[in-house]
Structures are given as structure tokens and as C-alpha cells.
Amino acid sequence: MPVNAAPRRIRSLFPLALLLIVASSPALADTHPGQSALVQEVARDTGKDPAALNALLDQAKLQQGILDAISRPAEAKPWSAYRPIFLTDKRIGDGVAFYREHRALLESIGKQYGVAPQYIVAIIGVETFYGRITGKYKVLDALVTLGFHYPPRAPYFRQQLKTLLELPESHLAGPLDTLTGSYAGAQGWGQFMPDSIRDFAVDQDGDGRIDLVNSLPDILASVANYFAKHGWVDGGPVAARAQPDGAAKPLTWQAQPQWPLEQLEAWGYAPFQHMNPGEPTSLLTLAGAGGPEPWFTFNNFYVITRYNRSPMYAMAVHQLAQAIMDGVHSADSAQ
Question: Which UniProt key words apply to this protein (predicted)?
């Protein structure tokens, strides 16, 4: 036997021994529960480096303020308290000024997408006060906190986090670790969640990027495209007050219009103005400052609830849009 045969055999065992040691070692704990599984999914679907993804998520922090904020949404208030938050003289006046300053862009986008421009303005007015309040939380912190540490809605926010990690750089206003937004991880003037950025945001200014923070054409067109893709009907009704008689049939509101208007009239609800009797509608009753407020809601109201499912949110957008348009007409007439 050659004298160096035994040492060669010992050396040949080293790689196997190393594998056994690694296999028997406990796995490193996730910084956030479920992080490793998410990283594997994103790496598999995009080819991104798992180490880089882990490094990004490792720096995201659990924020108690985010958990506190999601537990007290404004939509928990009655309409009598919710409406004054958004229908203020300041918000209406600034909306009128914004519309008049950017009229050419707004009306061009409105025509392109078939969406009334005042509703585009009202969305950014309700969401971020025309871009002034876009959120102070790091988007990664928000989505990690809610996706990994908030069981009631963890699946939804985990999906949003996954989408964020998979978005191309051209769809983001900056590096992932610098993005800021709402406590729910919504970004930009229109407060788009990652899935909405992926599916509905547009590069309106043609610069090769979708920037919902710094590009006004991208911001406004993305809101318009969201409405258009959800079925907005150009020129269609949104909502109208209803007058119930003493024997009106009690109805439960459905977001999607359920019956022709004439059916609701037969059940004891009359419109304040003449409307198409065949228009599909639902009946929404809000708790107003003066008592119950019954409203007919139509397809375009339903579209607004695709942006935010609260009927009070949709009504605030509708009434703000109307007030802005009234103010624009008044200002135009005064010139």
C-alpha cells in the first residue's frame, strides 16, 4: 500500500463531514416569522438573490404605532363624524385651486380614460390632501409589521409585501428601503398598494418610470386608470338622495347595484330629481347629523368602493368632487 493512501482517504471524507455538520446545525431564526418562506417564493418567482432579500427584510422593524393605527380606522366613525374630516372649506378650496391650476392636464387625462376629472382630484384630496400628507412610515416596516405580525389580515399584507419585493425598479419612486407611505403601506398621492401599482399604475409622462410621488401625470393618470379598469361609466350617475315614504321597505345596502331604480321607487324610495328608471342602483342609509340619510348609489359609486370598500369613503369622495366642481364653475363665472 502506498504510504500516502491513508491521508488521501481521510482528506476525501472532509466534504462529507462538512455537509453533515451543516445539515445537523439548527437553522438561523427568521428576523420576522415566515420571512424565509417569503424570501424563497420571491427568489423562485423573480430570480432575485435570497441573501439580498433577507438583508432588506432584516432591517425592517416591527412598529407598534402601525398596529395601533390599523386598530382605529376613521371608517369606524358614523357618517356624521366622518364627513367633517374631509368636507372642510380648506379641502374644498384647495381642490378648486388644484383643479384650476392643472386643468389642462386633468381634463386631458379625464378624456383619455373616460373619468370625470373632479373625481380624480377628490381621490387625492381625500387620500393625501393633494399630496401634502403621503405618510411617514417606511413601506417595508408597514408591510412587514402587518404581513408577519398582524394575524387578522396577515395574508393580505403578506401578499402586498411579496408584490412590493417583486416590482421592477421602474415601478417605484426610489429604492425599496427608502419608500415611505401610510401605516398600511400605501404609497404616493393616490395611496396605491403594491398590487395596485403593479396592475393599474401608468407611466403617463413617458419617462420609462412610474413615479406616484413626483410625477403629476403619472399620479393623476394612475387614479383615472384604476377607475376605468374597474368599470367607471363616463357621464354616469354616482349617488343621489332618496326620499322614503312612511311605508318604505327596509333594505340592506349592497356595494354593487342590485335593482333598477323603479323597483326602489315601488318599495317607497323616491329620487329628488328625475332619473333613468332603469338605472341599476342600491339603497345606502348613512347616519347623518340630522338623522338617517338614504341615498341611491350607482355603478360609479361601486367603482369608488373598489378603491376603498367603505361606503362613507366613497360618499366623501363623491361629495368632495361635487363641491370642487361647483367651486370651479363659480370661480370661472367670477372672472
Answer: Signal
State the helix-helix crossing angle for 117-128 and 89-101, rounded to 10 degrees: 130
pLDDT at 2 over 50: no
Burial 109-138 (b: 16+ CB within 10 A, else e): bbeebebbbbbbbbbbbbbbbbbeebbebb
Average pLDDT, the chain: 91
pLDDT tens-place string over residues 69-119: 998 877 789 999 999 999 999 999 999 999 999 999 999 999 999 999 999
In whole angstroms, how far apart are CA 299 and each of 29, 90, 232? 49, 29, 7
* Burial of 333 from C-beta contacts in 10 A (0-12 / 13-18 / 19+): exposed
Give the pLDDT score at 28: 55
3-state helix, strand, coil in the chain (%, to 5): 55, 10, 35
Rounded to a whole number of angstroms, the CA Rg of the chain reads: 26
Could you give the CA distance from residue 216 to residue 322 in angstroms, rounded to a whole number? 22
Q: Positive or negative, the Cα torsion across 248, 251, 254, 258?
A: negative
**Long-range contacts of residues 55-59, Cβ cutoff 8 Å, at least 24 apart:** 56/140, 56/165, 56/176, 56/177, 57/31, 57/32, 57/140, 57/144, 58/31, 59/140, 59/177
The catalytic position among 41, 127, 166, 293 is: 127
Non-local (6+) Cβ contacts of 319 within 8 A are: 83, 87
Cβ atoms of 46 and 176 within 8 Å: the answer is no
